[in-house]
Amino acid sequence: MMLTHISPHCDITMDFTTTSGKHLRIRVPLTLFDDLSLKIGNGYKAGCWVVARCNEVERLSHETIEQYVNIMARQICQQVTMPRIEVQAA
C-alpha cells in the first residue's frame, strides 16, 4: 500500500513497501512532481512511475535507489539540473 501526502515543505511524500519488503519514504519536490505529471500524463501515473523505478532496484542501498530514481527522472524531464528526489528508510 502506498500513502501519499503533500507536506508543508512543498514536496510530495510517499511511504510504501517494495515487493521485497523494504519500507521506503520518498520525497519528491512539488515542482519536479508537477513536471513528471505533465510528462507522464497525471499525478497518479507520476506516483506509480516513482514507485516502479524504486522497485526496479529495490535490493540496492537507499543511496543507490535515490541516485537511480533521480537519473531516470532527469531523463524523463529532459533537464540537466533539477530538484532531487530523496529516498529514506520509512
Percent helix, as a range, is 40-55%
Shape: globular
> Tell me about the biggest sheet?
4 strands, antiparallel
Low-confidence stretches: none
Distance between the termini: 13 Å
Count the domains. 1
Order of helices and strands: EEEHHHE
Strand content: 15-25%
Radius of gyration: 12 Å
Spatial order of the strands in the main sheet? 1-2-3-4
Find the count of extended strands (DSSP E, 2+ residues): 4
> What is the mean predicted local confidence, pLDDT?
89
Organism: Acidithiobacillus ferridurans
Protein name: PilZ domain-containing protein
What does the secondary structure layout of this molecule look like, with pairings?
Elements: E1 3-6, E2 11-17, E3 23-29, H1 30-40, H2 43-56, H3 62-77, E4 86-89
Antiparallel strand pairs: 1-2, 2-3, 3-4
Helix pairs in contact: 1-2
Describe this structure in words.
A hairpin with a 5-residue loop joins strand 2 and strand 3. The two termini are 13 Å apart. Strands 1-2-3-4 form a 4-stranded antiparallel beta sheet. The chain has 3 helices and 4 strands, in the order βββαααβ. The protein has helices at residues 30-40, 43-56, 62-77; strands at residues 3-6, 11-17, 23-29, 86-89. The protein has 90 residues and is an alpha+beta fold. The model has no long low-confidence stretch (mean pLDDT 89). Helices cover 46% and strands 24% of the residues. It has one domain. This is PilZ domain-containing protein.
